[in-house]
Design a protein that fits this description.
single chain, GMP Synthetase, Chain A, domain 3, 8-stranded mixed beta sheet, 7-stranded mixed beta sheet, globular, binds magnesium ion, AMP binding, AMP-dep_synth/lig_dom, Acetyl-coenzyme A synthetase, AMP-binding_CS, ligase
Length: 681
C-alpha cells in the first residue's frame, strides 16, 4: 500500500535550534533516556515529578496498580493511592504562597476586541475561595456532581476550581450544546446544581444560555430529576461593546431579558450567591483517586461517553505533558483556543497551565470575528509564544489566504500545536510555513478525552517532525499496533492503535457505568486499552494516526484510511475541505465515496472532479481512486469541530436513520447533502 505523499511528508523538520538550546528535553537521546526511565521505573519517574506538588499525605500503598486483563477480574487503574491532596491548592495556593500571587494567570479576551480583563493568581485564589464557600452554603458536598454550562468567562475557571477545592465533581457541558444535550448530561451525572450565565455573544450570534438551561431543567424534571439550584453569572450587561444583533436572532436588539423565566426559588445570581461569604476556605483534602471531573466525549463515533478522571494521576500527567509538549518556560505567554467545555480546555486551558504557573490567554470569541485576522491580532496583542489550536480552525484560516496572516507580526511565536483530528500534511505545512514563518516547531498532539493528556506527540526542542505524524509516545505511554486477530505488528505496519499499560492520566471509568468502560475500551483486545483509532508506524518508529477504525476502507482487499485519501484531495487548490467514507459496492466490497467542499466561488465542474480522481491515483494508487465524488456545501461536524463520518456514511448510502445527532453542530448541513447525493451509489 502506498502511504507516502512524495515530497511532502517525506521531509523531516528539525527542531528550531534556538528552541532546542533551552528546552526541557533538547535531543532525541535525552528523550529516549527519559522515556526508558518512565517505562522501566515508573515509580521513580513519576515520583520525582510528584515532588513539585503539595501532598497532605504521601501514598499509603503501591505507587501504581492496574489490571487491563478482564480474565483476571475488574479493569482498574490507580496511582498514588492513599495520598491526599487538592487540585485547586496545587493550581493556586502553592503559587501564591511561593510569592507569585501578582503574576497574571489569564488575560481574558472577550468576543469583542474591546472587552478584556486580566486575572492574577492571587485574585483567582481569592475568588475561588469565596465561590467554594458559596457552593458549600448551597449544600454542595464532597463527591456531589455539579453541571457547568458556561461561556469562556473567568467565572468558569473559578467554578471548576471551586468544585475541585471542595471535592465536588464538575461536569462541564460546552456552552454551544442544545437543551436536550444539556439535559442528558445533567441527568447522567446526577447533577442537582447547574451553573450558567445569562448569555454570551459568539461572533454575531447571541446564545441565551439561561433560556437553554431553563428548558434543560424542565426536561430533567419531566424525567424525574429535579435540579435544585441554578446559579447564573450576569455576563451580558458588563460587556462594553454589545454586538449589534443580526436580523435572524430572536429577541432583536434586546440582548437578554432577565425578567422572563426567573424562578426565584431555584435561580440565583452568581453575585448574590457570594453575598456575605467568608474569604477563607480550607480545601477538602481528597484521596489521590477521588474523582475530579466527568466529561463527555465529542460523539464523533456514537453516543458520548461520560469519562471520569481522578485527582492525583491526572494532575501529574497534565502538568508534565504541558511542560514538555509545549516546552513551557516561565516567560511564555500561552494560548489554547479550545473551549473549556472540551477535554483540551480542561487539560490545556485550566489544569496543565495553572499547575505550571503559566500566563495564558483565555478567549471568548471565534477565529472569524470581527474579521479573519482575529487570531493573529490576539497573538500580537499578548505576544503569545505557544499557540494551540485544531486542524478544523487551521483549514478554515488557510482558506482566507496567506495575506491575512502575513500582515501581522507573529514574531513572538515559538511553538504551534494541533489537536483534535489528523492534520493533513497540506495544513501542517501551511501552519509551519505561513503561520510560523518556518521558524517555529509544530507539535501534532494525539490524545483523547479518555487519555487525559497527550499520549503521542513530538517534543518541540527534541523531535524531528514529519508533517502529518504525531511522532513518538509521551513518557510512560506504551503504544502497540494490533491486527484484526489481535496479533502485534512489530516494526513498520498499520493496525489498531492500543496501549499496553496505563499512564497516570488515563480515565478511570465511564461515570456510573463501569461495564461500558470495560466493553468499550478493553473487550476487543483483552489486555490492552483500545483507542478506536488506526495508525501506521514507519521505518523510524513514528506513528501516523490514520483516523477511526470505523472509517477504514477495504477496497478489493486493500486496506485504506480515509485520512490518506482526504490528504490527497485537499492538496488540490480548489478544495477547501473533504471527507471520505466507505460505501457498499457489489464487486469491490467497499468503494470510495468522497464529499468535497470547494473554495469560495469555485464551481463544481466535471473537470475538477477528473483532476481530483487523478490526484488520488497519483498520490496513493489507482485502486484508491474515488468511485463517487459528491459536492458538499458543508460537512456535518461535532460542536468541537470534528467531521462526523458516521453520518456521511449513512448519507452516501441514502440511509436516513442517522443515529445520535445530539452533538451535531449544524443540522442544516444534512438536507443539502442528501440533495447532492451521487446517483447510483
Ligand atoms: P467519541 O469518542 O464520542 O466518538 P471523539 O473521539 O471525537 O468522540 P474526543 O475524545 O474529543 O472525542 O476526541 C478524540 C479523538 O480525536 C481521537 O480518538 C482521534 O480520533 C482524534 N484525534 C485527536 N487528536 C488527534 C491527532 N492529533 N491526530 C489524529 N487524530 C486525533
Ligand atoms: Mg473517541
Amino acid at each position: 500500500m502506498a502511504t507516502h505523499v512524495e515530497g511532502l511528508v517525506d521531509e523531516v523538520y528539525l527542531p528550531p535550534a534556538e528552541l532546542a538550546r533551552g528546552a526541557h528535553c533538547s535531543s532525541m537521546e535525552q528523550y529516549e533516556q527519559l522515556y526508558k526511565q518512565s517505562i522501566d521505573e515508573p515509580e521513580t519517574f513519576w515520583g520525582e515529578i510528584a515532588k513539585q506538588f503539595y501532598w497532605r499525605q504521601p501514598p499509603t500503598g503501591a505507587f501504581h496498580e492496574f489490571n487491563f486483563d478482564a480474565s483476571k477480574g475488574r479493569i482498574f487503574v490507580e496511582w498514588m493511592k492513599g495520598a491526599q491532596t487538592n487540585m485547586s491548592y496545587n493550581c493556586l495556593d502553592r503559587h501564591v504562597e511561593a510569592g507569585h500571587g501578582d503574576q497574571v494567570a489569564f488575560y481574558w479576551e472577550g468576543n469583542e476586541p474591546a472587552d478584556s480583563a486580566r486575572l492574577t493568581y492571587a485574585e483567582l485564589l481569592q475568588r475561588v475561595k469565596r465561590f467554594s464557600n458559596a457552593l458549600r452554603s448551597l449544600g454542595v458536598r464532597r463527591s456531589d456532581s455539579v453541571a457547568l454550562y458556561m461561556p469562556m468567562v473567568p467565572e468558569l475557571l473559578v467554578a471548576m476550581l471551586a468544585c475541585a477545592r471542595i471535592g465536588a465533581v464538575h461536569s462541564i457541558v460546552f456552552g454551544g450544546y442544545s437543551s436536550d444535550a444539556l439535559a442528558d448530561r445533567i441527568l447522567d451525572g446526577h447533577c442537582r446544581l447547574v451553573i450558567t450565565a445569562d448569555g454570551v455573544w459568539r461572533g454575531n450570534k447571541l446564545i441565551k444560555l439561561k433560556h437553554i438551561t431553563d428548558h434543560a431543567v424542565e426536561l430533567c424534571a419531566a424525567r424525574g430529576h429535579p435540579v435544585e439550584r441554578v446559579v447564573v453569572v450576569r455576563h451580558l450587561p458588563r460587556l462594553h461593546h454589545l454586538v449589534p444583533s443580526v436580523g435572524d436572532q430572536p429577541g432583536g436588539s434586546e440582548p437578554y431579558n432577565v425578567k422572563t423565566g426567573w424562578n426565584s426559588g431555584r435561580d440565583m445570581w452568581w453575585d448574590d450567591a457570594l453575598e456575605g461569604v467568608s474569604d477563607e476556605c480550607e480545601p477538602e483534602w481528597v484521596d489521590a483517586e477521588h474523582p475530579l471531573f466527568m466529561l463527555y466525549t465529542s460523539g464523533s463515533t456514537g453516543k458520548p461517553k461520560g469519562v471520569l478522571h481522578t485527582t492525583a494521576g491526572y494532575m501529574l500527567y497534565v502538568a508534565t505533558t504541558f511542560k514538555y509538549s509545549f516546552d513551557f518556560h516561565p516567560e511564555d505567554v500561552y494560548w489554547c483556543t479550545a473551549d473549556i467545555g472540551w477535554i483540551t480546555g480542561h487539560s490545556y486551558v485550566t489544569y496543565g497551565p495553572m499547575l505550571n504557573r503559566a500566563t495564558s490567554v483565555m478567549f471568548e470569541g471565534t477565529p472569524f470575528y470581527p474579521t479573519g485576522d482575529r487570531m493573529w491580532e490576539v497573538i500580537d496583542k499578548y505576544a503569545v509564544s505557544k499557540f494551540y489550536t485544531a486542524p478544523t480552525a487551521i483549514r478554515a484560516l488557510m482558506r482566507l489566504g496567506d495575506e491575512t496572516v502575513k500582515r501581522h507580526s507573529r514574531q513572538s511565536l515559538k511553538v504551534l500545536g494541533s489537536v483534535g483530528e489528523p492534520i493533513n500534511p497540506e495544513a501542517w505545512l501551511w501552519y509551519h510555513r505561513v503561520v510560523g514563518d518556518a521558524r517555529c516547531a509544530v507539535v501534532d498532539t494525539f490524545w483523547q478525552t479518555e487519555t487525559g493528556g497527550h499520549v503521542i506527540t513530538p517534543l518541540p526542542g527534541a523531535t524531528p517532525t514529519k508533517p502529518g505524524s504525531a511522532c513518538r509516545p509521551f513518557f510512560g505511554v506504551q503504544p502497540a499496533l494490533l491486527d484484526e486477530q489481535g496479533e502485534e505488528i512489530h516494526g513498520p505496519g498499520e493496525g489498531y492503535l492500543v496501549f499496553r499499560r496505563p499512564w497516570p492520566g488515563i480515565m478511570r471509568t465511564v461515570f456510573g457505568n463501569h461495564e461500558r468502560f470495560e466493553t468499550t475500551y478493553f473487550k476487543k483486545f483483552n489486555g490492552f486499552y483500545c483507542t478506536g483509532d488506526g495508525a501506521r508506524r514507519d521505518e523510524d518508529g513514528y506513528i501516523w494516526v490514520t483516523g477511526r477504525i470505523d472509517d477504514m476502507l477495504n477496497v478489493s482487499g486493500h486496506l485504506l484510511s480515509t485520512a490518506q485519501i482526504e490528504s490527497a484531495l485537499i492538496e488540490h487548490p480548489d478544495v477547501s475541505e473533504t471527507a471520505v467514507v466507505a460505501a457498499p459496492h457489489s464487486v469491490k466490497g467497499e468503494c470510495v465515496y468522497c464529499f468535497v467542499t470547494t473554495r469560495h466561488g469555485v464551481a463544481w465542474t466535471e473537470q475538477l472532479q477528473k483532476q481530483l480522481i487523478l490526484k488520488v491515483r497519483e498520490r496513493i494508487a489507482p485502486f484508491a481512486a474515488p468511485d463517487y465524488l459528491q459536492y458538499a456545501p458543508g460537512l456535518p461536524k461535532t460542536r468541537s469541530g470534528k467531521i462526523m463520518r458516521r453520518v456521511l456514511r449513512k448519507i452516501a448510502q441514502g440511509d436516513r436513520d442517522l443515529g445520535d445527532l445530539s452533538t451535531l453542530a449544524d443540522p442544516g448541513v444534512i438536507e443539502p447533502l442528501f440533495e447532492h447525493r451521487c446517483a447510483g451509489a
